[in-house]
Amino acid sequence: MSSAEQRREELKATWELARGCVKCPQLAATRQTVVFGAGNADADLMFVGEAPGANEDRRGLPFVGQAGGLLDQLLSEIGLRRDDVFIANVLKCRPPGNRDPLPQEIDNCQDYLFKQLELICPKLVCTLGNFATKLLRGDPATGITRLHGRAEVRTIGPREVRLYPLFHPAAALYTPSMVATLREDFSRIPDLLQEALPDDRPAPVPDVALAFEPVIEPSVAVAVVEQGRETSVVGQAAEPADQPSGEGPISESPRQAAADSPQLNLF
Questions:
Q1: How many domains would you assign to the chain?
Q2: What is the chain's pLDDT, residue by residue, as a tens digit (267 residues)?
């Protein structure tokens, strides 16, 4: 395994590729920005949602709407903050009208997520909702209602991780009774983080294969600014296209610019 600094540099390089991706022509034409993900690049805990929503598309940050507020609350109840975790989505671009991701869009975008998992090396990956759960389990048939709150070790690419399916916070906002279930499932996260994982080792037969072949737009420019452990990669905007689709990358001066410009926050 490469050093933490090498992994951070590779994560930034992956962001540069993702922000110019045009594999999905409709999403590339309607997005305002690519929402790559945000948080602690060395996090033990990673959350994977569905796709950016309108607020995320505008600000370039994951989970910044109402669902993000609920996620923050649930994290605080188990003694964690956003700075302690990494948050990403299956899709990096907002589907128009917050429609469900299409199968081809998931296929086109999944390698960015797999690369994030490989480089961040989390111990525990919480999949939020059906799309993330089905993708990372490699099982399109079994849904979140049956699987939520049931942790399991799965092989993804070159390593094994513990997956922990959860209801999507946005779904809980539409179904208040689901909040109690989500809170109960969240309460197990601290214990799951303490459980030992199998040794990190190359897996001869992965449950989910990696094949990273991005399509990029050659004219996209990137500006990278180093500030201690904080690394800002400032993106560029285009023009726009909610039930749940995903709903924090670095800023100019502390975190104020996060509200105004798309970017990558690595803590």
A1: 1
A2: 568 889 999 999 999 999 999 999 999 999 999 999 999 999 999 999 999 999 999 999 999 999 999 999 999 999 999 999 999 999 999 999 999 999 999 999 999 999 999 999 999 999 999 999 999 999 999 999 999 999 999 998 788 999 999 999 999 999 989 999 999 999 999 999 999 876 544 444 445 544 444 444 433 323 222 333 333 333 333 333 334 444 433 223 233 333 344 456 666
Query: Amino acid identity, residue 30?
Result: T
Q: Are strands 159-166 and 124-128 parallel, antiparallel or unpaired?
A: parallel
| 112: CB partners within 8 A, 6+ apart | 14, 17, 18, 21, 36, 92, 212, 214
Domain range spanning residue 50? Answer: 4-250
- Does any domain span residue 256? no
Residue 257 lies in a domain: no
CA–CA distance, 61 with 159 (Å, rounded to integer): 27
Phi, psi dihedrals of residue 260, rounded to the nearest 5°: -120, -25
What pTM does this model have?
A: 0.78
Residue 130, domain CATH: 3.40.470.10
Structural domain contains residue 267 = no
Residue 46 lies in a domain: yes
